[in-house]
């Protein structure tokens, strides 16, 4: 008889207690100690014991999902002082569902039209200094995003076509258009205000609802330790219910954004725990001592200094910054990050808050024992920097790629023609990379016949990055691979710079005419994309 693999067996069948991470090792994946906060790409946070117990209990029976949503909404109102609440399939799903609710309500004819909104109120206003990386979720519902920078632009934009105003909670205090300044305009025109407070903390009373927001959304799987794929939405009863009816299990716009009965129960328990349970308070009280455990291993090392940071607007409010003297310790933060991931146990640190000679450590997902391991590993790295520093190629450039190039990009599905104008000075490359819709500045190096360069396309709200690597062939063409990524400016780092995977590229030099002009053929002149 076939037997379930060990990782899939309930504990009472497997006959032993599984060690942390064993389920991933049996799949061939080595887990890591998490010092990089609650980022989704790394699993955010683990559900609390209370949440896991509640989800297991929810999986033992069946329930009408609409009845569960009604009961959960009432309970969330009691917990937070908001009119109502709804559990969704994550913060990004909430942005789409809230937009749908503000455009269509629960009017079946309009709900089933989405995302076609040509003659509807379909504009969503976002202050220019609060633009953020997840706006595509708003556009998915058929909305047009309008950026506003001043009160005058706000007044002009409120032309009867605005369905919603969206704010980014963590930027509200420093914004030129905070919630308080938007409220009079929004009320006068009957426009709901949604606050994305994904990484912030709900409370009773909820601060955003108390201050006038119509809706606020919190990530469930971050600090609150609900199931990672959930979000907690609070606000006006009618809008919360419209969000629910536009989503699964209903045959509407958000049918693909499904949330299960176990997740609803888990998120509800996590919210209750966060606000009312002493265990959640005790958990938060351990964050600073764990940072101090790490700091104790580093405090006497030559060339190393530490600082506990107070992080305005963050739930944690504390993180540890580790700084080193490059003259004493000759490696950079990316060398250290990669080295810590290669050792055992693996340790993950932030990439986008690093500088060449500093890192930031987050305590939220650490245990006491793990904090000790991190402190010892960092101390070893700083005492033995030669084991971390990466060798630098000293090969002189054997080729010069200065000139104009036609670049054929082959994606996982489809292809596109780009254009590269390159200048080379010794081993250094600069220039401009042109795609179908933007141009980015190029910087990189040539060693022997190998080249590596990055192009940066500054766009709002997500910058695009292309990380080219290649080799010049005997025929003068270039072939290689390119990492594809994008990130908001505040989160610049190697992880997001590669978050869209990779593509293949092949480039051929565009010849010059005798008069010095570029000989671009009709096939090259318009930059274009193709699906195959």
Features:
Aspartate Aminotransferase, domain 2; Aspartate Aminotransferase, domain 1; 25% strand
**For the terminal residues, how far apart are their CA atoms?**
45 Å
Main β-sheet, in a few words? 8 strands, antiparallel, barrel
Residues in helix, %:
25-40%
Shape call: globular
Please give the CATH class of the largest domain.
Answer: Alpha Beta
CATH topology of the largest domain: Aspartate Aminotransferase, domain 2
Weakly predicted, low-confidence segments: 519-528
Secondary structure class reads alpha+beta
Separate helix tally: 16
Number of individual domains? 4
* CATH homologous superfamily grouping of the largest domain: Type I PLP-dependent aspartate aminotransferase-like (Major domain)
Number of strands: 21
Q: Using the CA coordinates, give the radius of gyration.
A: 26 Å
What's the pLDDT, averaged over the residues? 92
Strand order of the largest sheet: 13-14-15-16-17-18-19-20
Strand content: 25-35%
Could you describe the 3D structure shown?
- The chain is built from 16 helices and 21 strands.
- The chain has helices at residues 11-14, 22-25, 49-58, 65-80, 91-104, 108-111, 136-140, 151-157, 179-189, 207-210, 237-246, 261-276, 278-285, 287-298, 333-342, 368-383, and strands at residues 32-34, 84-88, 123-127, 144-148, 162-168, 193-196, 215-219, 231-235, 304-310, 318-324, 346-348, 358-361, 403-410, 415-425, 428-434, 439-447, 450-457, 463-472, 478-487, 502-509, 529-530.
- The strands form four sheets. It has an eight-stranded antiparallel β-barrel.
- Helix 3 packs antiparallel against helix 12 and helix 14 runs parallel beside helix 16.
- Residues 519-528 have low confidence and may be disordered.
